[in-house]
Amino acid sequence: AKIFKISDIQGRLLKEREYEINEANGSLHRLEQSRRRLVSDISHELGTPMTSIQGYLRAMLDGIVAPDPENLKMVYEKVLLVNQLVEDLFELSKLEFGQPAFDLKRIQPDVLADDLVRRFGADIRQRGFRFESSLALPSPAAGALFLSVDTMRIEQVMNNLISNALKYTAPGGTIRLCFRFIYPDEAPLPQKTPVSLQIRVVDNGPGIDEAARAQVFDRFYRADRSRQEEGAGLGLAIAKQIVIGHGGQIGLESQLGKGSTFYFTLPLTATPPGVSAYSQSGK
Ligand code: ADP
């Protein structure tokens, strides 16, 4: 039998304690680093348009640039950009650190899919793109299941994904919305119950390379920084937080030169007996 000396045990405990302290220091350090990075990102993102606003206004005051409607419009658009950035940042911080106030309502998956196709299809066509949609939702299953979602928030996610697809794909391209059930195992046998609804936004734009694929959901990430007027790189970070807040997952498949598919899932629940899943009130 081993006999431990008190000093051995004390020594081991001390080592463990030391290890814990180091670990805690490490995560504090990482937290501090990410806080610093955030502050510097925010200053940079706000600083760039502010410098340009200041430059324009100074030039107008000095009489170098005429304060005509065209130049004023340029300044105004920069102000809108700053405003959008501040709003998006506030939104993201509420989603990440606060209690996201989701207004959850019960809705059938096929009803949500129809709503989204109607809501976005016309918009996409109007912008000069081809629009396609496909619903692979077996209706008996759809009838017995519901989603618990904040439809406004899901529309916000869709809006972010679709406006990216429109922004990065050349006009005349095709945007496709696909809705399908995800089953617990690979094979969708009729007796199996799907666990989630997957919504896919497919474009045939430039695609996203592998290095960028790992980062697109990070805040402030933009693959092409030269497209400055096009947003601050917060859209996908916000979309991700909303999807996670609904208990879902968000992801991306892409092939350079072929296009990108952004998808997210929303968990499905069996409709309790005696309750109509068509009820959108959730009460
Ligand atoms: P933003 O569009 O404001 O730059 P997002 O967070 O919405 O920010 O997107 C982050 C980056 O991901 C974009 O800057 C772009 O590089 C890339 N991206 C997003 N969607 C697409 C898409 N459909 N096709 C190609 N690139 C995309």
TrEMBL record:
Gene Ontology molecular-function annotations: histidine phosphotransfer kinase activity; phosphorelay sensor kinase activity
Keywords: Kinase, Phosphoprotein, Transferase, Two-component regulatory system
Keyword Transferase: yes
Entry's EC annotation: 2.7.13.3
GO cellular component assignments: plasma membrane
Reactions that this protein is recorded to catalyse: ATP + protein L-histidine = ADP + protein N-phospho-L-histidine
Residues covered by the Histidine kinase domain: 41-270
Cell compartment(s), UniProt: Membrane
Protein name: histidine kinase
Upper taxonomic lineage: Bacteria, Bacillati, Bacillota, Clostridia, Eubacteriales
